[in-house]
Design a protein that fits this description.
Elements: E1 30-36, E2 49-55
Antiparallel strand pairs: 1-2
Length: 101
């Protein structure tokens, strides 16, 4: 069990770790990124591997936006909110799109 603090590395000699939360220390709803770097016995480090964990609010809908990682210059592409969801009895009624930059 580990209490993660953003920006503070935790080192272990095991291949898994529990992200420990409780009522006084919850991860707020939204996206949280975690990074892993492994090191061998010679001190060589891997490139980082990252994952995003989505913490879901039980009363509000959750937006999941999918997009291509890269597109060719001048090419159109599709954004998809199809994996967005709301827990029953709610349902998604509209999608609001915005280009930020």
């Amino acid at each position: 069990m580990a209490k993660f603090i953003p920006g503070q590395e935790i080192r272990t000699n095991t291949a898994s770790i529990e992200v420990t939360v409780d009522a006084t220390n919850p991860l707020p709803p939204g996206r949280h990124r975690f990074r892993l770097v492994v090191e061998d016995d010679a001190g060589n480090q891997s490139e980082p591997s990252e994952v995003e964990v989505l913490v879901v609010d039980k009363t509000r809908p959750t937006a999941v936006l999918d997009a291509p990682v890269s597109v060719s210059f001048g090419a159109s592409f599709t954004l998809s909110g199809a994996r967005s969801f709301d827990l029953p009895p709610g349902k998604i009624s509209n999608y609001r799109w915005l280009q930020i930059s």
